[in-house]
Amino acid sequence: MHTSLVFALPYNRLMPTIRPAITADLPAILNLVRHVVPLMQASGNQQWSADYPNEEVFRQDIAREQLWVAELDGQIAGVAALTQDQDEEYAQADWDPTETAIVTHRLAVDPNAQGKGVAAALLDQAEKLARAWGLKSLRVDTNSENAATQRLFPKLGYRFAGEITLAFRPGLRFFCYEKRLE
User: Which residue intervals define the domain N-acetyltransferase in the entry (predicted)?
Assistant: First the structure.
C-alpha cells in the first residue's frame, strides 16, 4: 500500500498582491503584528512593543490612505505605511531633510511568509508611488538590532544613510537607508 503525504503550506510561491488597506483588514493586520512583535523582541529588536504599533495608528494610516497590505493566497502576509512623513530627527541622517520622499513606516511581514518577497513587494510599491508623484527619494529607518532589514535594504538598492535616535522611542538607535530614483 502506497501512502502519500500532503503538507499544507501557509503560502505558495505566488507573487504577493499589493493593495491599499481597508478598515476590514485591521483584525488581520493586528494579528500579524501580535505574531511579529515577540519574535522581534526575542532577537533583541525592541523597535515595537505591545502598545506600538496599535490599532489607532493603523486606523489613522488607513484614513490617510497610506497603509498598504501584501496578500499571498488571499491572506494578509505583510503591511507597510507608505507616507511622506519624516520625523524631525531624520535631519540627523546623510540626506537632504528638506526633500520630500516616500518613507516606509511600520513594515511587517508574517513570520510564515518571510523570504517570499513580501517586504520587497511592499518596498516596490513605495517606489511606484514615488515615481507616480514625481519624487526622487525613498527612505526608511530600522532598529539597529534588526539584522534582517539591514540585509534587505541594500539588496534592493538602498544605501546606508547614517544612524539616528527617535524621541518617541528613547534609548533605541535607528539606521537610515535611502534609495535614489533616476
Answer: 16-182
